[in-house]
Design a protein that fits this description.
single chain; 329 residues; 12-stranded mixed beta sheet; two-stranded antiparallel sheet; 3 helices; 4% helix; globular
Length: 329
């Protein structure tokens, strides 16, 4: 009789993260390790610092001296003593590890939420490529990002320690993390990461009650990373549980479903319907441009962006291209 692994699951985060200290991994031409700091917002735990692996398929350029904000989607797990994170003299103590699945450059962090200003005059009202005139000689405002944005988590796994009255439950997840999976720990114990989930009060639960699962029920949850519980007196500090404010819960069906025949329409010739009306952006021009890694600068941190136009005022209208890929060489 087969048994079910109650720690099997998947845990990821979508977050605005400050990335820095890139370092290569011996034996791989593409894989790098990055320091990543994400905002939590609790008085006792303002931020968490991680070491994330990234398969740099498109050769994005990461700055070695500055700090740049990125939108990342990454797996997440507790920091493990056997994790192969290639530390150097700049590496601090880490709270978590993971593998970045995709990353989008956002720019330098703002100061007190105010937009940055490079102090350089614009091109005295000459029209740009889209026919819009620049601001005559006034300092241009470059966009800035507030890094104090809570990470959004996505977790699937078997519920445990369920408390219907307090609307709490735990998810203990084991998943593959490349820096841990490649480590030669010599231990057969699978490291797991614990998440304690709380369903907060909301008017939408007044009619049917809060969606709290029963033990051993497989669920998929999303929500905000709200805090972390640390092992008492751990030095360096070690996370015992990540605390999640649940936003949505999806319950996996129980029992076997009756098979239903589905007609195969994929092989039938068909035409893609044409959308009526105009879109919001012209994506054809953007997708035809190949991404060009940014070069280093003494004033502006080097960030990977699409090929930039000649006019600085035009740059803020251009969007960074999503870069994906996590296979290893």
């Amino acid at each position: 009789m087969s048994t079910v692994d109650l720690t099997s699951g998947y845990a990821t985060i979508t977050a605005v993260a400050a990335l820095a200290n890139p370092r290569s991994v011996p034996g791989s031409k593409k894989k790098i390790i990055l320091d990543a700091e994400i905002f939590v917002g609790d008085k006792k735990c303002e931020t968490l610092l991680g070491a994330l692996s990234f398969y740099n398929k498109s050769d994005m350029v990461f700055d070695h001296s500055g700090i740049v904000l990125y939108l990342i989607y990454s797996t997440i797990a507790n920091m493990n003593e056997f994790a192969d994170i290639q530390p150097n003299e700049f590496s601090p103590a880490y709270d978590f590890v993971g593998d970045i699945q995709w990353v989008i450059p956002l720019g330098a962090p703002s100061k007190d939420g105010e937009p940055t200003d490079d102090g350089k005059p614009t091109d005295d009202g000459e029209p740009t490529d889209d026919g819009e005139p620049t601001d005559k000689g006034e300092p241009r405002q470059s966009p800035s990002i507030d890094p104090a944005q809570r990470a959004y988590v996505h977790i699937s796994g078997f519920a445990a320690n369920c408390n219907q009255r307090q609307a709490t439950f735990d998810l203990d997840i084991f998943q593959y993390i490349s820096t841990i999976g490649s480590a030669k720990s010599g231990s057969k114990t699978k490291p797991s990461t614990s998440f304690t989930c709380t369903v907060l009060d909301s008017p939408r639960y007044q009619k049917y009650g809060k969606p709290v699962p029963y033990a051993k029920r497989y669920v998929f949850i999303t929500g905000f990373l709200a805090n972390a519980i640390f092992v008492s007196d751990s030095k360096p500090r070690k996370i015992k549980k990540f605390c999640i404010e649940v936003d949505n819960v999806v319950f996996s069906p129980v029992g076997s479903a009756t098979p239903t025949a589905v007609t195969n329409d994929l092989d039938s010739p068909s035409k893609t319907p044409v959308r009526l009306g105009r879109g919001l952006l012209s994506y054809s021009r953007r997708t035809s441009m190949s991404p060009t890694p940014a070069t280093s600068s003494t004033d502006i941190p080097s960030t990977p962006t699409p090929s930039q136009g000649g006019r600085p005022t035009k740059r803020k209208r251009m969007e960074a291209e999503t870069v994906s890929g996590h296979s290893e060489v």
